[in-house]
Amino acid sequence: MKKVILSLSVLAMLSACNNEGTSAEKIEDNSALQAKADSFITVYTNEYQQLYYTSAKAEWELNTHIVEGDTLTSQKAEEAGEAYAAFTGSENNINAAREFLKAKDKLTHLQVKQLEAILYAAGANPAVAADIVSQKIKAEMEQTKTLFGYDFKIDGKSVSTNDIDGVLESSTNLPERLKAWEASKEVGKELKGGLVNLRDLRNKSVQALGYDDYFQFQVSEYGMTTQEMMDLNQQAIKDIWPLYRELHTWARYELAKKYKQPVPEMLPAHWLPNRWGQEWSSMVNVEGLNFDKALEAKGAEWITKQGEDFYVSLGFDPLPESFYTLSSLYPAPADADYKKNNHASAWHMDLKQDVRSLMSIEPNTRWWNTVLHELGHIYYYQAYSTPQVPVILRGGANRAYHEAIGTLIGLASMQKPFLVQQGLVDENLEVDTIKGLLKEALDYIVVMPWASGVMTDFENQLYSENLSKDEFNKTWWELKKKYQGIVPPTERGEEFCDAASKTHINNDAAQYYDYALANVLLFQFHMHIAKDILKQNPHNTNYYGSKETGAFLNSLMAPGATQDWRINLEDNLGEEISAKAILEYFAPLMKWLEKENAGRKVSLPESI
Ligand code: X8Z
Ligand code: ZN
């Protein structure tokens, strides 16, 4: 049975509005209308925050303790999710917000923003589609349990995703790599039915409030149309394409040498050091900049503390004690009777001070970067949890901003002057700057055709074009080839669902372009910090201890979602979103790659 939680006070307030005639235009006096809007928003906020927290706690439990056969935890999460959905999607709330917005000229900017956010929240869970919403919540829980409860196996032996990543990062044995890669994709088969069902439920739930499809709904949070978002992403790919093309050529020749194989036209997926071929940086070891050994000696706990110390040095507050006591930061013990979500995330549980992260930190460079990324989200949460930012607007300027901060700190944390100061590398070691740039490009450039191309194109087709389930894998691999120049090691028929092996396809649907746009933005931020604030070489910075840098980051984050992101960017940088900065940063590498690849056969087309 569906529970409908709607506080008496909201109902009372709404009926008061109704008694006076709902048409807001009738009310001449701005301040009277603003006072009414305020009381509606206040009552809404209190209920919202409480339901959000209850639902977040139940979801947290579901993601951190997945026990086979346990139905109670998911039942609780479902109930909490349904209560949240029933409230945010209630007709009363939708009608009230719409009614107030009819007189938006008479309301304050913050009120309009909040009312729009209330409508957006309703868009995902409208009561008019209550049955669909309820099915969607159940299906999402099931998908989470299947994905993260999955028992990955190599040669019949259970392995963790950290184990699989380890093989793909370091093994030179192709049959061993193939097994690890194939093992990582098996979960997709189990998820395909759920994905088909979720696609339909997600689409139907947002269509009830007038959105065309779920992709359009997600994009609308940026104040953009689907076409505008697709164009922005296609432009980003076009901008970095010449550099990606050189990296692709370089990687084909490099890996062929490493595995003692003929140079392939396209990159076989199991040759790459990542399950999806989205980051290749571990292909390069920069003498002097490899601090895996140092991290191993320091341990996983040290990484989190050191990450926090970096942010504190910029002027941010230390993390609340509850972050450490309530987060789930390390892998479940090998003999644990539960599994946990193995993909890193950061949670703003109560939209106030209860901030947590879910990770499986191991002491290596990959996790060092991930810790800094997640702490970026946490510090963002803290930056806008202030009286100036209403609870309903405690989100990023846009979602890409949220993804950008921690990745920016990750970029800064890998530059030599910072590492020397941390005692992680030796000051006297000569560092090959171009190799350093190459290593960075293998993450920051390589992820672009994946994020803006494969993921975004696939999800647009999935949701907006209702991609046939008989063509999921065919389409997936066509896009992998087109955008990334990656091919499957063996035939991958429709019994597989390789897209579904990616977490976000299942439970962060239709928003992966966030990461691509974050990359573009973070280089704009970095160039500004390096040149205008630190007055340092952008390839050799040390942010540590720079309060001015902290203040700049804070000015990006502190307004939360109270301001349009384009205005925030204009105010802070005086520019629009643009790939100019990322291209400028990697310009010296482009020259080096052109020389290095001279005479080599290039297989990607000149333009995309
Ligand atoms: O999902 C993440 C973060 C959590 S927001 C760890 N990232 C993307 C991915 O892993 O696919 C960070 C970079 C891209
Ligand atoms: Zn993130």
Automatic annotation (TrEMBL):
InterPro entries: Peptidase_M2 (IPR001548)
UniProt record, GO biological process: proteolysis
UniProt binding sites for Zn(2+) 1: 373, 377, 403
Signal peptide: 1-18
Binding site for Zn(2+) 2: 373, 377, 403
Cellular component terms per the entry's GO annotation: membrane
Keywords on record: Disulfide bond, Glycoprotein, Metal-binding, Signal, Zinc
Pfam families in the cross-refs: Peptidase_M2
Catalytic residues (positions): 374 (proton acceptor 2), 374 (proton acceptor 1), 504 (proton donor 2), 504 (proton donor 1)
GO molecular function: metallopeptidase activity; peptidyl-dipeptidase activity
Annotated positions binding chloride: 222
Protein name as annotated: Oligoendopeptidase F
Species per Swiss-Prot/TrEMBL record: Owenweeksia hongkongensis (strain DSM 17368 / CIP 108786 / JCM 12287 / NRRL B-23963 / UST20020801)
Lineage: Bacteria, Pseudomonadati, Bacteroidota, Flavobacteriia, Flavobacteriales
